[in-house]
Amino acid sequence: MTTGVRRRMGVEERRQQLIGVALELFSRRSPDEVSIDEIASAAGISRPLVYHYFPGKLSLYEAALQRASDDLAGRFVVPEEGSLGSRLLQVMRRFFDFVDDHGPGFSALMRGGPAVGSSKTNALVDAVRQAAYVQMLSHMKIENPPARLELVIRSWISLVESTALIWLEGRRIPRGELETQLVHDFAALAAVSAAHDEEMSELLRRALQGEPGDGPFSDLAVRLIALASPPAS
Amino acid sequence: MTTGVRRRMGVEERRQQLIGVALELFSRRSPDEVSIDEIASAAGISRPLVYHYFPGKLSLYEAALQRASDDLAGRFVVPEEGSLGSRLLQVMRRFFDFVDDHGPGFSALMRGGPAVGSSKTNALVDAVRQAAYVQMLSHMKIENPPARLELVIRSWISLVESTALIWLEGRRIPRGELETQLVHDFAALAAVSAAHDEEMSELLRRALQGEPGDGPFSDLAVRLIALASPPAS
């Protein structure tokens, strides 16, 4: 519309710009350490003008977190083609890209610092977990999961979170290794559950039909399933 | 000192009584739903007298949480005898006893409700995780764990937490099954890590020497280790 560098932004455009600037700052350092003054300065506007768009730091934080949550939930959406193992590996790469980009903010949020833990932020975190869960079911082509499968998927998602948090502490293990390992962990947890339950064993067998023998998943999974299957009687 | 039913308690005795009463209430319902009036009534004293011992609900909650944390951390301490698998199974039973007794309070705390998430409560939760981690190392007779072993143990502890939280939602899976499964999960996660790393493979092999062939651990672990070992070259 205009070529001026300092052209006036519309209300929504300004809000979106502030959210972007805040997300960038909240991602790089713990949100507690980021001040409104800093956000104003990074956005090139005055402090009172920030308050014109957002009543306080918490509301700006929640808006930034909403954007990050939408982004993160989207990382679990990959094309439903190829083997389950290769899709999960793709998802893990996209997830670790996110964690890499938003490290300090991600840690602060998940560890529950003083600025977080509001019911709004908890709801956003839960929404991401739920989106990841729904995507997993979709990739496994399962609509009505039994309790044991729900447990395996949801507890694996929590394992993914905690692995990322521990990784962020010192990045002492190459992330690529963890990405593959988490895919294998899923296979392993599912196989352990299958070893305890016939229905899980059957479900897992079906979900893994069509896995290529050389995929990242079947590499471990095929042998784990053989292990988990009840002996032929 | 006195045989009267309503004898006067000393300050510390009264504090301990209030903590016990509060812990009981905070365990059975979400701490947000428990009022000081209720605690006073359950303790048989007046509301102002509660405030005489604790400045507010948060400080009473923190004191109750401190007691619960000490209790929970103690659940990971079992005699260092018998196989690793049988000890872990014993620990899981003691842990689920705790979860069973403190269900709603445990869920509220771990899910981060509005009344929680203070730096004090976070520190208590972290202290329990750390105590569990130290006990695991002690049972495995390992003093300077490499990063990969630390990751396996700590992420497994988080898996134990999330499994308990999911179980509490509807108790749809018998807890005994989950206790055994979590021991197997530890073996499985360690085995996956060993499949990625020679040092882990060696460590795990040593830690599992002396496991009886019919123990809850080696049942799965022996086969997983064989699987995780690099092919003889």
Automatic annotation (TrEMBL), chains A, B:
Organism: Streptomyces lutosisoli
UniProt protein name: TetR/AcrR family transcriptional regulator
Pfam (any one): TetR_C_46
PROSITE patterns given in the database record: HTH_TETR_1, HTH_TETR_2
Keywords linked to the UniProt accession: DNA-binding, Transcription, Transcription regulation
SUPFAM superfamilies attached to this UniProt entry: Homeodomain-like (SSF46689)
Lineage start: Bacteria, Bacillati, Actinomycetota, Actinomycetes, Kitasatosporales
Domain of life: Bacteria
Family annotation (PANTHER family): HTH-TYPE TRANSCRIPTIONAL REGULATOR RUTR (PTHR30055), TRANSCRIPTIONAL REGULATORY PROTEIN (PROBABLY TETR-FAMILY)-RELATED (PTHR30055:SF174)
Xref: InterPro entries: DesT_TetR_C (IPR054129), DNA-bd_HTH_TetR-type_CS (IPR023772), Homeodomain-like_sf (IPR009057), HTH-type_TetR-like_transc_reg (IPR050109), HTH_TetR (IPR001647)
Domain HTH tetR-type: 12-72
DNA-binding region: 35-54
